[in-house]
């Protein structure tokens, strides 16, 4: 039995549609359709998310080995931990955690920008998205859907249109210090009228400016300068989930 057959079995058994999975986990309908048709197989992160969603063993779902049903004591439905910022962590059988964060798709950019004007407020009306992480992190984390192809250069570093990234907010009190762009080259930058995904390649501490860089070598994606006073939020990208998986 191939992965697509195991997934079809679960869909039929639970009476779940690809649309329902997308609404509940943010794995796109197109991605689920590709799984069902056998065009692609999921990466480890999506395997973990789907296994948790259907309450089955990850090993069985991934390669058909072992028992389908997982012991109830492996991980509960209640969060293992809810942080002060509202992030929920769920224990997994492999020692990792399923981290649930607010999800900002492209269609919700405008609403999110409005919310960002109140730096301590994030609407609970946003959808949520799960990432698999090795450890519990504190602070404010968000999942953003990437818009456009300015960060796509056909390399492993690419962030393509439709990818979903896990981003950690950097508090404004740290913006006038040196940004750790060597460790975190890719950033989500929220402005008053749009949300950008760029690399920060230079910073002028005296002027309070940053130079934003796109990976796409096309001429229309030239480097440009931003004043930090014009930025609403800075988040460094710590994990990516490709739209092609």
Q: Mind explaining what this structure looks like?
A:
With 245 residues, the protein is of the alpha+beta class. It has helices spanning 3-14, 18-25, 29-37, 44-54, 58-63, 109-116, and strands at residues 81-82, 88-91, 97-104, 127-133, 141-145, 164-170, 186-191, 195-204, 209-213, 224-227, 231-241. Strands 1, 2, 3, 4, 5, 6, 7, 8, 9, 10 and 11 form an eleven-stranded mixed beta sheet that branches. α2 (18-25) crosses α3. The longest helix is centred in the N-terminal third of the chain and has 12 residues, at 3-14. The model is unreliable at 71-76 (pLDDT under 50).
What would the keywords be for this entry?
6 helices, 245 residues, 11 strands, 28% strand, alpha+beta, 22% helix
Task: Tell me, briefly, the overall form.
Answer: globular
Indicate the structural class.
Answer: alpha+beta
What quaternary form is this? single chain
Q: CA-to-CA gap between the ends? A: 20 Å
Please compute the radius of gyration using only Cα atoms. 19 Å
Largest sheet: 11 strands, mixed
Mean pLDDT: 85
Protein name: Helix-turn-helix transcriptional regulator
Pfam families: HTH_19
Keywords: DNA-binding, Transcription, Transcription regulation
Domain HTH cro/C1-type: 27-61
Summarize the topology.
Blueprint: H1 3-14, H2 18-25, H3 29-37, H4 44-54, H5 58-63, E1 81-82, E2 88-91, E3 97-104, H6 109-116, E4 127-133, E5 141-145, E6 164-170, E7 186-191, E8 195-204, E9 209-213, E10 224-227, E11 231-241
Parallel strand pairs: 3-5
Antiparallel strand pairs: 1-2, 2-3, 3-4, 5-6, 6-11, 7-8, 7-11, 8-9, 9-10
